[in-house]
Fold each of these.
Amino acid sequence: MKGKPHRTAAGDRVKPVLAPFRIPAPGAKMTLVHYFATWCESSKRWMPKVEEMSKKYRAAGLVVVGVGHYGEETTAGLELFARELGATFPIVFDAKHEVTEAIPPLSWGQSIIVVDRESVVRVAHLGSFQGAFEEVDAAVGRLLAQAPP
């Protein structure tokens, strides 16, 4: 983060993250990184939608990980926020900025980045607007269908 502009775009190659959660996830066709913040209204609306995609596409090779805003006070607060909104996917507290430096969000608090096995960004989505979930969901479905086994 460190004041750098966020220019992650589809087609960018990102540095794979080894800890605290491997991104891209081993064995996944696609890894969806859901950046969120407990104070963000868009994050509150998107958390259940991201959970829906996680369940819908898990068998097709999608792995979802939530990355909480580094300014949050506790990992427990991030977990509680996500679980109260129905999320069952792993939640990462990125205190060392390992994930956000390797795969920058478009903005805080709501951002979706989807990377393939080769660490290439395939979807980069900012915020929440009418119809956005359906667009992201359809893009993820198409990418998984096209990805090699």
Amino acid sequence: MNISQYLAGRRIRVAAVTTLAAGASMAGLLGTTGIAQAATAGPDTPHGWVVTDTCTGLAGKITYSPGLLTSSPRKVQAVLTGTTSGCSDIFNGPESGTGTFTAILSGKASVKSENFTGTFTINWPASSGFNPANGTLSVTESGGLETISGQVTSGFATGGEIASQYVITGKTGKGTKAKPVTSQTYTNTQPLNLSRNEG
């Protein structure tokens, strides 16, 4: 049972949402940060983290300066931009239209390895009525899979956490010194989830 189906049946209270999130039926929606631990939390782990907002689609482009090399990592500045789609809020339901995701990143990276930190802004679909969410994040690569994790520090859902994963789908450049990779395209393999501690 997914969130939309559950909401179609009846309006839920925060307490019920918390209980549902701890169940196995929500395990697939939990993010890759400490949120995921809530589903199998022990007595010393705080409960109450719930995926309240999610976008099933996230795709776009990353630009690098200087470009990425295949041979060795080097210090790189990166700008990640993307369009979100299929967004919904656990209390208000589906949101029509699209939004945007932007991250300004820096760190050591090569074509085969990335380790970035930086800041992000999520502009939710206009139909949501939400203010942008701003925060800090990290992007790490393992086996070709890029993992996003971060925390909202201002705007909508301050104190919440974000999580997603994506893969590279294309590139400009060859990864050589003469033709470094200056940009890549990407698409998500996991939803962009925003989780909040609802008690």
